[in-house]
Amino acid sequence: MGITIYIASDTMGFGDNELGRILIRSFIKVVKDMDPRPSCLIFVNRGVFLTTEGSDLIDDIKAIEASGAKVLSCGTCLDFFNRKDKVKVGIVSNMHDITDALMNSTKVIRP
Question: Which domain holds residue 74?
């Protein structure tokens, strides 16, 4: 597996959450147009809010997925936030698949 992007929040960085939402939005939009593209995107904790109903990044993440990337959302996280029925892109995954993807990646990026 190539590059995996591990997204653990619906914000990027620490400090101001409004700025963090702007940054993660920009990051995903730029990743969509980068070469090489990631082979996997993993969303955990509040990161699952980016793959579920209400996210304005669904189309961008779908475009990354259409380029061949796996998009995994943590099932435990979706259950915790009561969002499992709201997934709009990718698949509901589990810790085994997430760990396997991380361990078999040539590079892991955590924005």
Answer: 3-109
